Amino acid sequence: MLVVQPFSSASHSHSHSHHPFPGQPGSQPDPHDICQHAVPTILAYITPLPSPPTLSLVLFFQHPSPTSLTPTARSRPAGARQTKTRRGGNGIFGARVEGESDGSKDMAVMVDNYVSGTLLAFLLGFVVVYILRRKTTAEKDERGEGRAEGGGFDEIRNDCVRSSTNGEVRPEGGPETDVVIVGAGVAGAALAHTLGKEGRRVHVIERDLTEPDRIVGELLQPGGYLKLIELGLQDCVEEIDAQRVLGYALFKDGRNTRLSYPLEKFHSDVAGRSFHNGRFIQRMRDKAATLPNVRLEQGTVTSLLEENGIIKGVQYKTKTGEEIRSYAPLTIVCDGCFSNLRRSLCKPMVDVPSCFVGLVLENCNLPFPNHGHVILADPSPILFYPISSTEIRCLVDVPGKKIPSIANGELANYLKTAVAPQVPPELHKAFLAAIDKGNIKTMPNRSMPAAPYPTPGALLMGDAFNMRHPLTGGGMTVALSDIVVLRDLLKPLRDLNDSASLCKYLESFYTLRKPVASTINTLAGALYKVFCASPDQARKEMREACFDYLSLGGVCSTGPVALLSGLNPRPLSLVLHFFAVAIYGVGRLLIPFPSPKRLWIGARLISGASGIIFPIIKAEGVRQMFFPATVPAYYRAPPVE
To answer: pTM of the predicted model, to two decimals?
Structure first.
């Protein structure tokens, strides 16, 4: 027996002669007097039972004086058992008090070993839950995702977000703007025109309204052109010397194959378009500005304005340096791949697998007119496509985040010695001339899956929200498709001021966009990894199998090209074609004789194919990608106005 709180030697001796435990001789004093006069002592003892020893806890009361307590059963015969139940009291739980009424001054309240185990488990569980809650709260505080007890959202903690209640005079009667759009690139300008046509009052804030000069965003797939028609913006590819694109030509080791878009079921005007990115954007900006309820303004947005966890608008700096605040019930951030506002609205997991080196070739013709050209070079692909009637864009992919220096001539030397020998002969001379001209541009190729934090009053779109490798030219198709989805969701709503209900309703946007977005994103990431050269024999076989599979024609070429073009955005079809390529590669290895070495390479080929596509699918979200109808947000109804 272990005594946790010692007591007097006299009492100790008495406790041995009149053991207070049940079944032992002792007396039962009045519980009321016990509570007033007893000094608690905690004991631990091993029960003398035949079963394995069990530890029990005992709460022992030591009485300070033999005359201080009055027995409750003076007239009861010796040895008669008295049992009383005490409920409530000064302790944290009620206990059953048992004893023998022989005048003993000591009593014990035994807490059963099962109860003690329960208490111990409760305490340990409380500690674990407390630690986990603190960890979860800390993570939410870092990303500004927490919710308040009343059902609202906690204050968003981010250096890109600031309170909107710092003495600022708010417009009376509510904001004069329905939607604030940050950025007027492809997504921002198209969205401004679309919402403006729906009658929304739109304020667009763009850092630089002059014509941009970029080396990406120059190829619009046929699926994207169909979305452009759906938005009423198809005339924006007119009068900018845009070129029709009818498919791709694939080159590898002196061989080539042509892959045409499956456009037989569409109007003759439907095709891909390639152009100068800046000219296309300016056309959309001009068209949006013609609407009286759309206001374009040049300025730099410095922060989002937050009030009680709800985004109320933005703070921006004008060309003259004046700090101004613009309020609206809905703020849509479309400020591109270098967005500095997305950190408070999503979990940015940006990957930079490579960089593009851009050149403009002049006075030459492509081997296959009106086609994009993909050269499976070493170490990674080279792209050629027309951007005007006299110019051809060349994009050289350089793996990794760093490229050779332009200033000291390392990049020009790399292009001439490592890349030029792999360029088709028809383009070789123009390629060298473009290098000597010196107008070389570079751009990091970024990939970022969509991982939004649903935030009342705010939404992310475009490259600020979701990026994929630009090898397949699918970025603008995804952005325009997202705008169509958002337009249809907002169409039945006239009032956007109930931010909490609107946020919950717009969670369906993240699911409804998945078929198109996830198909193009997954295909871009997977194709880039397959098209890159590798010393691994299994990867070499996969690359060769992909080229040969696409060269077969029929469904083996039209199926993948329909996926790439955005005409058939079905994730399951993508997975089937991808593994069909892998199985085709294994079949090539096993013919004419399946040697052990070839079997091993074939197994590694299947394993490598799985290692390429499954991580991309996981990042996109398996459930939303393949089973969107099982996501509750898929069925969200518009909030009642």
So the answer is: 0.74
